[in-house]
Amino acid sequence: MAVVVQKYGGSSVADIPRVKRVAQLATGARRAGDDVVVVVSAMGKTTDGLLKQAHEVSANPDRRELDMLLTVGERISMALLAMAIKDLGYDAISFTGSQSGIITNDTHSDARIMEVRPTRIQDALRAGKIVIVAGYQGVSTRKEVTTLGRGGSDTTAVALAAALNAQRCEIYSDVDGVYTADPRLAQAAIRMDVLSHVEMQEMAEAGAKVLNAQAVEWARRAGIVIHALKTGEPGPGTRVEPAPPRASGGVRAVVQRARVLWLSGEARADELLAFLDGHHAPADLCWLGGGRVTALLPLENLHGLEVFAAQLAEKFGGRLEAHTRFGAVSLVGDGLGASHATLGSALRVLAEAGHPVHHAAHSALRITLVTDADAVPAAVAVLHRAFLETPAAR
Ligand code: ADP
Ligand code: ASP
Ligand code: MG
């Protein structure tokens, strides 16, 4: 039988009726004749709630204990879903990340999957069970529980799809595919039928949370096609697949990070890199040299920002400034590096709309513009209009 991996995100299992609906959907796939593995996220905003509790206890929660806490969210969903499926008369069993054989490195809060050994899942499938897996978590080679970074249940799904040689990897959320911008910010955003792994990975790395960056990276390496779909609504969704570069190039999507940490000033490159690595705070973009550094850091996996900033100030003094009032808007598309025309137009469009651009970076696949955090939503809308809504742009 073919293996199908389905992943349901937090909004899809936000309450008991929704858990029961996912049980219906999973058993439907089973009835269609597939071996079904369901990866679940924590219910609704559970992970945010657990993080808040941790920060009420400590300004800089111990990372090992934080992972022990955050992994609870997905365990609740997996157990409830297994119960709901059993109630429908199907055999089901739930597994934690560790029980599923998701082996990671030991970077708490943002671990990377090193290997998948899904023997228990395979045994359970062979025994005719529907297998439910807690997303977003694994176990390190030192046997510590780890989490895969925010949005990491997608990574669990893709890694399992690769390890189980699945026929399909379906990622279900509250949106019916990947759009040319976050549909919450750009009303006219268009769903894309197909998107290359390379472009989707760049979108995810620039902050598009519809799919997780590590998940797409894994899919690209393993040649897994990801189907991004909406829970309970049949539709074509978006296929993220290996694809040759598009001949025409141009902007494919507008992506935002609502808030970033922007570092700028004087520091020795090796000292800054050691500091960031010591805090497991990888930069999304950085420029180093001549004693000057500039770096843009995502905030979602940097738990304990105040302590991080205080330690940064202690180490580098006033020579290195850390700003948190900025956000970033990116234009993504294979071939954007071919000329500076798009960057020039983007700067003009934002200037005309009155949105400041403090810094800009340009690579083969992406243009990133750092603006004020409160200007981000409007900047997304205005860039989407300029590059993706005019007939010439398409
Ligand atoms: P889940 O909890 O199911 O993993 P997420 O909240 O992580 O779902 O991702 C879905 C959300 O991603 C959507 O609600 C949407 O607002 C947001 N999003 C951001 N960028 C895009 C995009 N380009 N296309 C579609 N959705 C996007
Ligand atoms: N529950 C985790 C989060 O909120 C993982 C996920 O949803 O994929 O980030
Ligand atoms: Mg997600």
How would you characterize the overall build of this protein?
With 394 residues, the chain is of the alpha/beta class. The protein folds into two domains: 3-174, Acetylglutamate kinase-like (Carbamate kinase), CATH 3.40.1160; 253-389, VC0802-like (2-Layer Sandwich), CATH 3.30.2130. It is built from eleven helices and 18 strands. An eight-stranded mixed beta sheet has the order 3-6-2-1-9-11-12-10, with helices on both faces. A six-stranded antiparallel beta sheet has the order 14-15-13-16-18-17. A four-stranded mixed beta sheet has the order 5-4-7-8. A hairpin with an 8-residue loop joins strand 4 and strand 5. Helix 2 (46-57) runs antiparallel to helix 3 (63-87) and helix 6 (197-205) runs antiparallel to helix 7 (213-222). The longest helix has 25 residues, at 63-87. The structure holds adenosine-5'-diphosphate, aspartic acid and magnesium ion. Aspartic acid (ASP) binds next to loops. Residues 9-10, 41-42, 47, 73, 135-136, 150-153 line the site of aspartic acid.
In short:
With 394 residues, the protein is an alpha/beta fold. Helix content is 35%, strand content 27%.
List the helices and strands and how they pair.
Blueprint: E1 3-8, H1 16-31, E2 35-40, H2 46-57, H3 63-87, E3 92-95, E4 102-104, E5 113-116, H4 119-126, E6 130-134, E7 137-140, E8 145-147, H5 153-163, E9 168-173, E10 194-196, H6 197-205, H7 213-222, E11 226-230, E12 233-241, E13 253-266, H8 269-278, E14 285-289, E15 292-298, H9 305-316, E16 320-332, H10 341-352, E17 359-362, E18 366-372, H11 376-388
Parallel strand pairs: 1-2, 1-9, 2-6, 3-6, 4-7, 9-11, 10-12
Antiparallel strand pairs: 4-5, 7-8, 11-12, 13-15, 13-16, 14-15, 16-18, 17-18
Helix pairs in contact: 1-3, 2-3, 5-7, 6-7
The structure holds adenosine-5'-diphosphate, aspartic acid and magnesium ion (MG).
